[in-house]
Amino acid sequence: MLPTSLNLALMLTGYLLVMGYLGVGLLLLRRPPEHTEQPPRRPGPRRAGAPVPVPARRGWPGLIRQVVGTAIGGYVLLMVAAFGYYYGVVGLGGRFLLSAVTGSALMVGVSLPLFFIASWVAAWWRKRSSRAADRSGPADSER
């Protein structure tokens, strides 16, 4: 078993790495405001070997891909944390880690349909709200 100060240092390092990855992810997802004063730029000539932008999938395929990708990514991150802590820090292994893998898989299997339904409702609500805002027009917002 490792000394307490080393355990604390390992847990703090893991926490800071996860928070750093989440922060980088948020920076990558930042988008410029939709309403800018500048006219839209025309794309210039493409360089050889430059990545081709992939349009976002819409509808059911896009929703399924997003939900399943989020569930798999969350499961992998949970397993990395569980293996890192219980095998590397605490020193438990074997049957305990097998239980962590199967129990977490069961948790993902139970929560995935609920997460899918919640994601669908949120997307439907956003679409419905944007349609209502489009119908109301600018005259209603000035009152």
Description of the structure:
This protein has 143 residues and is mainly alpha-helical. It has a domain at 1-21 and 58-133. Helices cover 73% and strands 0% of the residues. It contains three helices and no strands. Helix 2 (59-89) runs antiparallel to helix 3 (95-141). The longest helix has 47 residues, at 95-141. It is extended, with a radius of gyration of 23 Å. It starts with a helix and ends with a helix. It holds the Pfam family DUF6256. This is Secreted protein with PEP-CTERM sorting signal. The chain crosses the membrane at residues 6-29, 67-88, 100-125. Keywords: Membrane, Transmembrane, Transmembrane helix.
What is the strand and helix layout of this fold?
Elements: H1 4-29, H2 59-89, H3 95-141
Helix pairs in contact: 2-3
How would you summarize this macromolecular structure in one to three sentences?
With 143 residues, this protein is mostly helical. The protein has helices at 4-29, 59-89, 95-141.
